[in-house]
Amino acid sequence: MSQVLTENTSPAGSGDHQAQEMIVASNGSVGLPGQAVKQTIAHTNEQAISSADFDWRRELRELIAFLRKPVRGHAKVLTLRQGWRRIALMLALNFCFIVIVTLPIDAALYHWAGLEESVKTDATKISQWVISVLIAPLGEELAFRAGLRQVKYSLFVAPVLIAMLNADKMLSLIMAGILLSIAAADAIRLRYAASAVSIRFARSRAFIRRYPYVFWMYAISFGLVHVSNFYSTNGRDYWLIFAVSSQLFGGALLGYLRLRQGLRSAIAFHALFNAVCLCTDLLFP
After folding, report:
1. Pairing mode, if any, of strands 115-117 and 230-232?
2. pTM greater than 0.85 (yes/no)
3. What DSSP designation does 142 have?
C-alpha cells in the first residue's frame, strides 16, 4: 500500500524542464546569464518545497468548496507523506462528525424509534476483520467510487455492483444481463455510426455538466444501502434514514479522496475506518 497514494507521476528531470519553461516565459529567451539561471532554479525549488508542506486549513477550504460544487478534476501528484496526511485528516473529520452529529441523532432515534442494529459485529472473530477491513472496502469502493471518473462504468457496471450489495442474486443477474445487452448494442452502434466521435463527446460533456448530481447520487446511495444495518423495534422504520448520517458524510469524504488521490486511497481510508471501529468494539464492548 506504500505505493498507492500517488496516481500521477512525473518523468525524471521534469523539475529542471519546468524551471527552464519559467525562465523562457518570464524573460522571453533561453540565453540568460548563468547567475540568473541559478537564481531562477533556486526560486523554483523553494516553491516546490513549500508546496510539498501539507496545510490542513487549505485542505479544509478545498474540501468545502468541492462539496459545494463537486467537480471531476484530476488526481494531484502527492508525496506518500502528503497522501497519508490527507487520509488522516479525512478520518479525523469523519469521527468528529460521528461524535457531534451522528451520536446525538442515534440517541434520539433510540428513544423515539427504538433504533437497534440488525447485525451485531463480533470484533474478536478473524472472519469479521477480513470482511470489514478487506472485502467490504474493496467491494463498496468499486461499486460507489470507481464510476466517479467513467461514464460507461457509471452506466453499465456500478448499477450491477450496487444491486449485488442489496438485492438477491437472481435480480442482480437479470440486471447484469440487461445492462450487458445495452452496452453491447451501444458498442456496436458506436463502431459503425458515422457520428461516433461526436456522440462520445456529447456524453462526456453531459457527464461533466451534471457531475454534481452524479457525485451526490453515489454518496446518497452509499448511505442508503446501510439502512439495512438498522431496524425499529416500534414500527417507525421511516425514521431509520436518519441513522445513516455518518455513512452519507463518509461517502462524500470517500468520493473526495477518490477524485483527489485515486481509488486505492479511498479503499485505504475505508479499511482504516472499519479497523478503528472494530478496535473500538474491542475496547468498549
Report:
1. antiparallel
2. no
3. H
